[in-house]
Structures are given as structure tokens and as C-alpha cells.
Amino acid sequence: MKKCLALASLLTVLAAGCGSGGGGGGDTASNTLRFVGPEDPKTFQPVIDGFQAKNPGAKVAYTQIPFDQLNATLQQRLAAKDDTIDVYTVDQPRVAALATRGFLADLSDWKDRVKQAVLPAQYDVNEHNGKLWSVPIWTSDQFLFYNKTLLKKAGVSPPSSDPAKRWTWEQTIEAGKKAQGEGGAQWAFIPEQIEQYYQLQSLAESLGGGSGITGQDMLTPALTTDGWVKAMTWYHSLFDGKLAPRGVGSFQTSPLFTEGKAAFFAGGPWDVGGFAAAKDLDWGVAPYPYFAGGKQVTPTGSWSWGINPASENQQLARKFLEYAALDPEGNLLTTKATTIIPSNRAAFEKYVPTLDALAGDKSKGVGAIMTYDAEHTAVARPRSVGYIQFEDVMTKAFADIRNGADPRSRLQQATQEITTAWAQLR
To answer: Would the pTM of this model clear 0.90, i.e. be above it?
Structure first.
């Protein structure tokens, strides 16, 4: 029997998941796979078309759930053992929590195949307690984009695209200040995900502060280390010193760069495609910085896909995951409609030249950066059954620090909040 749990606040979304638009409720054919995720349907249409072409008679029906509603919606439906979801997208650091709650089917018989097929940092994030629960589809990296015009006006030589000549954060901010003073830049430096753990984790990691989570069970906060305090003091200074803007949210920052208002911008591969369309912007790309005397660390991680244990289409679901993650052809098709990095090694090697040439000379070198980072500097977000609560607390802490809160005191407060939230998980 098909089950759908409808809460008043999520009625529209849940109805979409159970209705004809999502291939759910009324469609009980075993050859129809119900797939749920936050992306625009156009993103996944190429891989769906490819899979259906290779599996005549099979049909994949995709339902989009907005990102800010995805996790809550999935937890409600999976907890109700809703079998109208077969495959769904999984934010990688949430794998442990989902597996612990019984929301992911065990894929451990694929361990060796997945290890061999995917990039180095893309396997462990899908494991929990020695079992494999999901397969990686995409990975990511961060780059330092720069405005050539603003730097030239300030007499600043731009950073090299060579990973061996990676700039430090100290160099970046010094150059950004000159661009503000003499180049006419409104902002010295802007991180795209301005209050998100995904991007800010690397600051503390570079200074030896760790991920912020420790302990054998990864349920002990470690946010008051010297590395975290130093990193957040530096982060605080960006906004306190008017080097970066307040009042603009994550993923709302890229227009400030495309409008020529920022000297430097830290963003991902998706921005290469976006900036390529900004014809009046003269820009370049360099490796993501690190702190002087610290470790070179770059953010990574993205979406994996998992199977709902309550699904009645386990075999077809596994075929779909196998095609999208382990088959280079299928994995490449997941990137055809958007600028994102495939996690499959063979697909990655074919994809690199495409991204490198996307914006001509402006994007030249991004492939070499991406390849180097994937092998040497990529650090994934921590695996913890408490990651969901951790991320929520940290997003609020980053916002407060950005808006003037004392870094050390706010990290102490975050530690207390996380400890309280995790008490029920022990």
C-alpha cells in the first residue's frame, strides 16, 4: 500500500511527491522509478534519457522538492515508510544520520566497485559503521576568482593559476585592500557561501583547528580550538573592516562579482559557467587560498544518491544508481545541463577539458586546479549522526560572527548548543 504523510506546512510538496507529477501514488508499475531531489528537472533529464534508452521499458519519474524543504520532507516521508520514493538525493554529510534512522538501503556489496570508480575524497563520505549507504554523483571544489580590471588599476599582479603557486589568505586580502583603495573596488573579497559550513570549514582546517567535530563517535564539538578561534576572528574582520558585505545571503553574492564590485570572489565550478556569460567582466581563476604557515585545504563534497529501503523497486533503483554513478557515460550525463564536477574518475578526466575551455582564456587553468585539489587538498565535511544539528547551529553562529558577535564567545555558545542537541543522540 502506498503511504504518504502530509503535514499542513508541506502539503503542496508532499502532494507532488505522491501525485502524477512525481510518478507516485497512482502509478504502481514496477518499471517506473520514482526519483526525488532539489534540482531543476532539466538537470537530470539527460541522465534519465540515457538510462531509459539503455533500459527499454523502464521509466524514471522525477519530482523536484525545493532545497530548503528537501530534508524535512524526506525525513517525514521516509519515517512513514513511504514507498512512493525509490531513489533520492543525499547531502553527503547527512549519510550517517539517514543510515542510523534506517532511511537508506545497504549497498555494501558495491564497496570495491565504488572505491575503484570514484575520486579519492568521494568514497568515505558514503560509509557509516563500515557499510556503504549511498553512491557519489558529483563532487566540488572552490576557486579564487579575480577581477583583472580592478587589480590592474591598483597595480596588483593577479595570482597564478598554478596550484604550486597558491596564494595565502593574507596575500589575497592585502591585494583586495589595494583594489579597494586604488582600483575602485567596493569589496576586497567575497565568499559565495558567505555563512555556510561547506565553505568556511576550510578556514579552521587550514589553521589546524579540525572540522569542529571530534570523538570516537563524532559527537563531541571541538569549536574552541586555537584554529577555530583564529579562523573566525579573521572571518569577523572581513565584515568588521568592510572588506566583505553584510546583509547579503549565500548564493546571492555572485552578482556583486559579475557587476564588477569585488576584487576577489571564492566560488565553485558552477560559477565558471555563470561568469562566462558575463561578457563585460574581465576575470581569471586561481587556486583557493590557505593561511600562511597552515595547511592547504579546499572544500569538497556534493550530492550522493541513495535508495529508500521501503521502495518496491530495489532492483531498478540499483540499476539507476549503477548507471548514474559507476558508468562514466551516465555520470557525465548528470553534468550535461549544469556546470558541476562528476565524481566518477573516468568521467572526471573527460569533463576537465570541457570546464577548462568553457570561458576561453578566462577559465584556462581551472582543470589543472581541480585535478590537483581532488588528489591533494580536498577535505570533506565530517561524518556524524549529529551533522544535521551541527550544521544548523553553525549557520547561525557564522551569521552572528559576521554581524559583529565576538568569535570566541559565539563559538563557546555554539558548543553548548550542539552539546545540548546531541545529548539525545548518545
So the answer is: no
